[in-house]
Amino acid sequence: MTGTHVAESATTIVDLSATTPGDEPRGGAARWFRRLAPLIAVVIVLALLALWISSRELDSIEQRTLNWDYLLARTREHLVLTFVASALVAALAIPIGIAVSRSTSRIFRGMVGAIANIGQATPAVGLIILLAIAWQTGFTTALVGIVAYSFLPVLRNTVAGLDQIEPSVRESARGMGMTSGQSLWRIELPLASPVIIAGLRTALVFAVGVATVATFINAGGLGDMIVNGLKLQRYPVVVVGAVLVAAIAVLIDWFAGLVEELVKPKGL
């Protein structure tokens, strides 16, 4: 890792009316509206989508796809891919990020950063298909591809979050008798948690998007709807699949934002 770039959440809402902390909305209603805006927007979009689909006369091919059983099955597959991959990313990238931040070896930091960059620089479709050719098709291969593609934001934010802590904070912890491990768990990780969780939010959104191409290697997910709709030229199927993927990404990022606010140390 050669820098301390921080990956912001991909779907974070930018409040143009509050560019500085002092300008943040003070009213409770405004604060709650801002907090619930993504949820409200998703509900409105899904309601409009359902209204549009119900107003159409679907042919037999569209009826086989645009029904609750099929939609729930594909959505469940998509969510399983997303959450399992994100959990693996967190379990792998955060410890490696801690090791990188603790290391003084430029070779080690550069090597880890280069490997993580390769995973994200490779196009998601190409990466998953290459893995399928070299290994096998199915869920496990899709999972490996999603983890490789989503790894960098969490690794980079973990390193950046720990590197930004002032040396005086660590010295104070040691002055209080804490070991290096105690300083990490009690002081440094809580202080770095907002930056690390921002990386996790980005990784979650990446995972939702990349899980769409899992359909090319028979791993299911909402990509099935999009690809089948395109092949059969059934555009209502494509639109429903694409809107559901977007809605899942926004809802996951919204929920992760609430978790980020919940775990943020008071005073930050």
From TrEMBL:
<keyword id="KW-0472">Membrane</keyword>
<comment type="similarity">
    <text>Belongs to the binding-protein-dependent transport system permease family.</text>
</comment>
<dbReference type="GO" id="GO:0031460">
    <property type="term" value="P:glycine betaine transport"/>
</dbReference>
<feature type="transmembrane region" description="Helical">
    <location>
        <begin position="79"/>
        <end position="100"/>
    </location>
</feature>
<feature type="transmembrane region" description="Helical">
    <location>
        <begin position="195"/>
        <end position="217"/>
    </location>
</feature>
<feature type="transmembrane region" description="Helical">
    <location>
        <begin position="112"/>
        <end position="133"/>
    </location>
</feature>
<keyword id="KW-0812">Transmembrane</keyword>
<feature type="domain" description="ABC transmembrane type-1">
    <location>
        <begin position="75"/>
        <end position="256"/>
    </location>
</feature>
<dbReference type="GO" id="GO:0005886">
    <property type="term" value="C:plasma membrane"/>
</dbReference>
<dbReference type="InterPro" id="IPR035906">
    <property type="entry name" value="MetI-like_sf"/>
</dbReference>
<protein>
    <submittedName>
        <fullName>ABC transporter permease</fullName>
    </submittedName>
</protein>
<dbReference type="InterPro" id="IPR051204">
    <property type="entry name" value="ABC_transp_perm/SBD"/>
</dbReference>
<keyword id="KW-0813">Transport</keyword>
<keyword id="KW-1133">Transmembrane helix</keyword>
<dbReference type="GO" id="GO:0055085">
    <property type="term" value="P:transmembrane transport"/>
</dbReference>
<dbReference type="Pfam" id="PF00528">
    <property type="entry name" value="BPD_transp_1"/>
</dbReference>
<dbReference type="InterPro" id="IPR000515">
    <property type="entry name" value="MetI-like"/>
</dbReference>
<feature type="transmembrane region" description="Helical">
    <location>
        <begin position="237"/>
        <end position="259"/>
    </location>
</feature>
<feature type="transmembrane region" description="Helical">
    <location>
        <begin position="36"/>
        <end position="54"/>
    </location>
</feature>
